[in-house]
Amino acid sequence: MAEYDLVVIGTGHAGSTPAYACRKAGWSVAIIDKRPFGGTCALRGCDPKKVLVGVADVVDWYRRMQGRGAVGEHLRLDWPALIRFKRTFTEPVPEDREAGFRDAGIATYHGIARFLDPSTIQVGDRTLTARRIVIAVGARPQTLHIPGEEHLTTSTQFLELEALPRRIVLVGGGYIAAEFAHVAARAGAEATIVHRGTRPLEGFDPDLVDQWQRATRDAGINLELNAAVEAVEKRGTGLIVHAASGAHKHAYEADLVVHAAGRVPEIDDLDHEKGNVRAETRGVVVNEYLQSVSNPAVYAGGDSAASAGLPLTPVAGMDGEVIAANLLKGNQRKPDYSAVPTVVFSLPPLAAVGLREEVAEARGLRFTVKHEDMSDWYSSRRIGNAYASYKVLVDEEEDRILGAHVLGPHADDVINLFALAMRAGVKASAVRNALYAYPSASGDISYMV
Predict the structure, then answer these.
(1) Are 279 and 304 in contact (CB under 8 A)?
(2) Which pLDDT tens digit goes with each residue over 133-155?
(3) 10-21 pLDDT per residue, tens
(4) 102, 112, 403, 406: most buried, per Cβ within 10 A?
(5) 375's torsion region: left (phi>0), alpha (psi -120 to 50) or beta?
(6) Assign residue 143 a region: left if phi > 0, alpha if psi is -120 to 50, beta otherwise?
(7) pTM of the model
């Protein structure tokens, strides 16, 4: 049996930050992962995904500029070459991360971690005891409980495809479906999004999502809404996705069906009940300090915690910093989930921070709304972009930005300036009157507030 001051389960941002911080403070630390070290973002999430989106954007930009000065042979996306390029980012990560832990004096373990009791973890044939335990295991695709579910391809598997099939159906209408569909379409595939809801990207502003849908359909992507997937059937070398819209039945033929219908905390194999760790569908139940409400020796962060934070890498990183501070100094720091920007990296991207209009209205806030189509602005016309708009909410009494929503090229960078202003308490008038480089995408902010 090995004894440690801290055992961390998970090697992503929420886990590695407290591991390093506590080891630096002189604690004995061990870290465990059942997958290659590095976590979701670096290996099978935001980083590799953005590599694919970046090349797809080059193809899309080239096509938009035809007749506007760009000429030459038709530009196409070489999928095998793109995946090889993506692997130059992901393949070095596990070995580098594990070496970093070892160099810091952190013991590393591979395998499934299971609680034996509130302070003991088993990994394979090894037993570890700890004064403190951090759960940061990330998330997995949720189980859909439909016939033929075994035929679904996960987002992790999609990012490793050696070749891209011609017909792709994506089950779900969130981030994964939106981003992968736009990449696949620029790579020449026939992409179909099948979503059970009335509109996709339900956490984003409805008006901007409406325009995003027009951009998506214009890219050749089929959007099938109000269609609940009931089964996936293997037929010959292909697949059939069976869906229902009320009493109406639909069947979509595909060569590949991607699971994009949501993710849940991957805590099922922890045997957390034996550790007296209370959990629910959203993850480990924690207090305001990210400490387990049932086992004070345990903390949880990132996708593993049933907290108010969005399932985003920066949030997981902040959770890790909060946990580290509370482990080392006692519970004295709380995460601040206000003004966290989030982006759908489609083409064009859709970004948001703060409140949506309907949420602000439900809270009884007094605010003004600026909402405009930007497709005829210089910043859009210059790059041949036909879909861009924004919506900004400003508190009438305090002149504070309550929410910002942006669709269009560089929305992923522009939204960060709004988030910075909101977190720093900068008044909307100051944002409006600031001097920006011109011409630039961020320079448009002065016209949005």
Answers:
(1) no
(2) 999 999 999 999 999 999 999 99
(3) 999 999 999 999
(4) 406
(5) alpha
(6) beta
(7) 0.96
